[in-house]
Amino acid sequence: MTTQFLPTEQIPGCPICQHPEARFVGHFPEPHIEEGLSVHQCLNCSIVYLNPRLTLEGIHMLEDSSEVYLYDAEQQAKAVHDREGIIAWLESMTQLKPGSILDVGCNRGYLLAAAARRGWQPFGVELSQVSAAEARQRFGLPIYSDLESLPQGQLFDLITCWHVVEHLHHPVQMLRQLGELLTPDGVVAIQVPAYRFADEYIRQGNGLHIFCASHPFHYTAETLTMVLEQAGLQVFYCDESPKYLFLTIYAAKPSRSINANQQAQLAAQREQTNQKLAWFEHDHAAIAQTLESMNAYVQHLETTLKTKNEHIAQLEQHLQTINNGRIMRILKRIKR
């Protein structure tokens, strides 16, 4: 079957700060882009991005061609139950009580269904017509095609963007829109693949989970914080998880108050995160040291094998010389 390559565009520089120069990070195969993925890092703001990248038309074509897997009743119940834990965690870390929630990129609505169980008033935005229809049919959720279609004047106490921001061509613009949709104490919760652990994705055989045509950007805690600040939002929680390889960030309007108890919670969580990162980096250092020792041992074996082969060749040459001498003596006897 012939692969249909999607349309791409070359961009003149960093999509965030417009700096023209970047460091080439690497090239990766991609089934939807003929020339593969070229990953670059801006020399000014350090954001990591694709160049060339899919056009907006190409992104829509890719989204439309993606298969939507529909869960049976048992799988659906488990999916909603699991996401209740996410909502409970968000409530705990943001100190929010059930109010209005907007899930951007809500897919089939499982997170919103879980939120509704906990007393939240759910709203969703989903580009995929198939996924949106599934969410409406199974859970009766109000799902909209874009932010502009939301009820006029509706504000939200919590906005979730789970694995959405890495898909956007203009993240600052959309995050600024989300900030305008927040209540005064509202929170935007974002999760993306953590670029810090890109090597780990590849090591686990999941490189396409991070390096793929639909991800024009790759984020670290520092660069996503920078993007949120450009959008007028202030980060108050950040976790780069070496276990799940995700980056999770909570942000709010700068005017939002954070009480002392919440600050203590966040400080403790940051300490736990730093410890996890330290363990991860220690493990990687140990692995690197082991690999270095193994490579040195392999090199030693190769040198030893080469020496033995040279010795064998010398012995074979010596035996050949001896055999040639014997043959000559036999011939001389025959001549006599």
Notes on the structure:
The chain has 336 residues and is an alpha/beta fold. The chain has three domains: 8-64, no CATH class; 66-262, Vaccinia Virus protein VP39 (Rossmann fold); 263-336. The chain is 46% helix and 20% strand. The strands form three sheets. It has a seven-stranded mixed sheet with strand order 8-7-6-9-10-13-12, with helices on both faces. A four-stranded antiparallel sheet has the order 2-3-4-11, with no helix packed on it. A two-stranded antiparallel ribbon has the order 1-5. A hairpin with a 5-residue loop joins β3 and β4 (48-50). α2 crosses α3 (110-117). The longest helix has 76 residues, at 260-335.
Any key phrases for this structure?
336 residues; alpha/beta; Rossmann fold; 3 domains; 7-stranded mixed β-sheet; 4-stranded antiparallel β-sheet; 8 helices; 13 strands; 46% helix; methyltransferase; Methyltransferase type 12
In short:
It holds the Pfam family Methyltransf_23. This protein has about 325 residues and is an alpha/beta fold.
Secondary-structure map with pairings?
Elements: E1 8-9, E2 22-28, E3 37-42, E4 48-50, E5 53-54, H1 56-65, H2 73-94, E6 100-104, H3 110-117, E7 121-125, H4 129-139, E8 143-144, E9 156-162, H5 171-180, E10 182-193, H6 198-203, E11 217-218, H7 221-230, E12 234-241, E13 246-252, H8 260-335
Helix pairs in contact: 2-3
